[in-house]
Amino acid sequence: MKKILALLGTCVLLCSSVSCSEQNQYLSSENLPSSPTASLISYKTADIKMADDFSEIITLDKRSNYILIFGKFQGETYGGYITNSQFTEKNDFKFTPQKGEIVKSAALMRKGKSAVMTCLNGNTLLYVFSAEGNLENTISCGKITESDSYMTLIASDDGFYISSDSDEIFYISSGGECVENINTGGRIVCGIANDSEGCPAALLCENDKQYYVKLDRGKFSEEIYCGDYGSNVRGFGSGFGEYSVSAIFSDGLYVLKDAEWNRLSDFSDNDFNSYNITACAMTAENEFAVLISANSGNHDIRLLTERDISEIKSKQTIKMSLVLGKGSDIIDDRIKKFNSENDSYKAEIVNYGNISDDFSQCFDALREDIISGNAPDIINFSSSLPIGTFGSPESLFVDLYTIMDNDKDIRRDDFLDGFLEGYETDGKLLMFNTEFQLNTLSVKDKFLNGLKNWNLEQLSEVYRDMPEDMYFSSEEVSHTRRDVFMSLFNYGCFVDYTNASCSFDSTEFIDAMKFIGENEIGLTENEYWNVEMQYTGNYYAEIHRSDKALSLSFMPIRGFYGLKEIEQGYMGEPTTFIGYPTESGCGNYRIIDNSYGIMASSDNIEGAWEFLKYYLIDEDKDSRFYFSGLKKKFEEQSAESVKEHIEIDPETGEEYSGELFIWYDNGGMYYNNETPPELHQTEMLPLTEEQRTEYEALVREAVKNVYLTDNTLSSIISEEIEYYFEGEHSAEKTAEIIQNRAQIYLSEHYS
Prior knowledge:
The protein is built from 15 helices and 43 strands. The protein is α+β, with helices and mostly antiparallel strands. Helix 14 (about 710-725) runs antiparallel to helix 15. The strands form 14 sheets. It has a 4-stranded antiparallel beta sheet with strand order 1-24-23-22, with helices on one face. It has a 4-stranded antiparallel beta sheet with strand order 2-3-4-5, with no helix packed on it. It has a 4-stranded antiparallel beta sheet with strand order 6-7-8-9, with no helix packed on it.
């Protein structure tokens, strides 16, 4: 569970300076500071709440016992919070830039004052704010650097220092009377910050040699050589007590005492690495604040506090099974963050994929461990390991309803109607997940004559009315008839796992085979329409936008973004998500494939549940790519779908649409001396309220329409229908064989 400081909406920290070029993210090991003989510190982390008020964080600055967090609030207003090092008080100020003005940085001054640095028409400006948040003074510094340069600002008692693109430092007197470029001797500026005493300092580098330099009235007042460690410093900020400053190198967190760097942590117990951190500051003894930058552009501010060794030893280990490729490097930020934040438990992955290169043997080994009671605490179920294939699953796995009904954080009615029921086994919740995808067929409105769902007969009518040069499915032109059949018809509706029975010899299943076979939909093996195009998403956009294929089913829809992507991107015009042909009226469905359960033999069921709640519920996921089964989250995703997704250019501050659909002519494939394909792109627009209402209802209905997947059963169908498409068996004979094989399998594994 996320730990939020129980302090007044807190922020934190830090230095304002990111070092030189980020193209070199790693220092060579021979240049790294030597690790001290003392053991490294394990840090637990807590999220800093104050940062949540910002859509973008530009600067974090610490001076003496005060901290500034500055950035862009939700909307067009910039501003900052000033708090003490205990995060118990805060003052704020707001700043609205002029048209064309680019906000660069901000700095903390004495007595609660602050300054904001901008560029306007090539000139650098400083705005000084009082402790009450009122604008006191505006200083014009002239054209001291290019407007697109990376610039960092710190304040001193007598003026301001600006670092620009890691190679220049400018000094501006407090009244703006003096503006001068400080001579760094050609050395690289790794960072500027106020030290533990609140005095300005810089870290310089020349030929891998580092120099810690104190600044006074625009001059270097003291210079200390501190090692041959190179210029790649991720963050540089204030120290505390006997440590002058702190810094982030590629292998961890360091502090500078006298002229020696001391390594404190390598972040091995945390969910982030050195390259994620853009700023750091020491806020108390063995306590730090760090600014973490995610790949998405979001910022996360954490307070690091030392974890007691007895606390580490007392943690109970929760193990979860996965089957990944042999030797896979398992990187899961949710697990790392759980381990970082939780005081009682530590989660580990057991990769059964290391047993063999043959995945079937890996799943067999996991199955044997489950039956014998020797499996990990948490089991990851999939189509290769269906829970229904265990003879008496209720004796092997915990009924999660018995835990959920006594849990203060999560209840059954927190989920969408029918969501949990889809995971049930004889009324018991032996497995679950919190996200899902929608499986459907999509067709342009103009070809459906008003149909919103269809059965096989109606599908056949639409097929007969298609233009002569049109394919029925975009999969048809690059897949075999067997593959097209498996893609277009959902075998799950012919299976009753609860009663271990099936109906593949039904008229509906036979007619579905005949629809593909008699109309020769799909090509035979290796007769591809365009072997290059089939491997790119560009192909689907080109073939559907040019009306050369009717239906699209190649990708599951994982969120409201996916609905927009198909209609606005691949189709390019109004589209109906009509679903698979069925007599039931709902052809859209939810596949139960990836889910999690707890072993009844686990020694720590309570800990396994705490981890699952965190892993599946508490941690945010990208709302554009997965539907959530939680009502509150699903409704938030729905509301977000009608808003424009905005990105911000980090260099210019310019806002632009963050959702573009891009495709190329001929699939984007070309070779030497050929003309590159033409690029096309379209802006993805927010859903209308009408679309939102329609799609939300569609998805809510599909949630209740559940089909379980089983790879063995799928293989039986796929193997046998090939004999029909090759003309060796009739549709009726093929259906009879599939029925017999499938029934034997179900009786042996699901009874």
